[in-house]
Design a protein that fits this description.
mainly alpha, 9 helices
Length: 259
Amino acid sequence: MASTVEKATQVEKATQALREAILSGAYGGDEKMREVPLAETLGVSRTVVRLALSALELEGLVVHAPNRGFRTRAFTLEEVSDALIVRGELEAIAARYICENGLSDADRVTFEDLLRQMERVLDGGFAEVESRLAWMDLVASFHGLLVSASGSFAIRATIEQLSRIPLVAPYSVVFDLSSEDYSRDRVRSTFETRKQLVEALIAGQSGRAAALMVGYAYQACNNKRASFEGMRYGRRVSSIPGMGLISREETRETENADD
């Protein structure tokens, strides 16, 4: 029989495996999470699977109902939009903190290096999947640095929690595969916003930096909404972690923008 420590480790590993599977699009919204097949796939007991699913319920990725067991949660587009705006406000606070405390030389160098890498990827375009993946990694690194440079544990912890909602994590970048340039012009617009943000952080312009982050959040909301319109009308959009959990009937007509 597994010890308490061994079982805890099994639960942690099973929870992470299921979390990644859900966010990778392996499951759709309101899909039943069957304990026996999951236990067989993960090589653990049903008890471990049940504990892992209970942990994911606390994160909001699954729900449990009497006589129905665990099912993935179906998010509405309004919930996603709300979380994106909250993330933007938190990043605005992070930007203010950086300006008030001063941007360190090390963080300034890292920000500038990320911008250079982003510009190289942009110049090459997004026709190749490797370029799109590289851009997503750079976006995640940029926003991660913004939060870490703020020095706020509360902001980091809250954004980590918000990022478990599909399409809210900085990594969830949308590329319109139906456009000839894969949305490069619109992506370049958000790149310019990031350049302006770094300039504001270096100059200690807290109001400007905060306003840029709030504006960026609204751009992201428009982007997600436009992606759902693309799904609705048969346009191809890039595969995004967690897309299958969103209720398509909740989409609204919006303007197009990209992350």
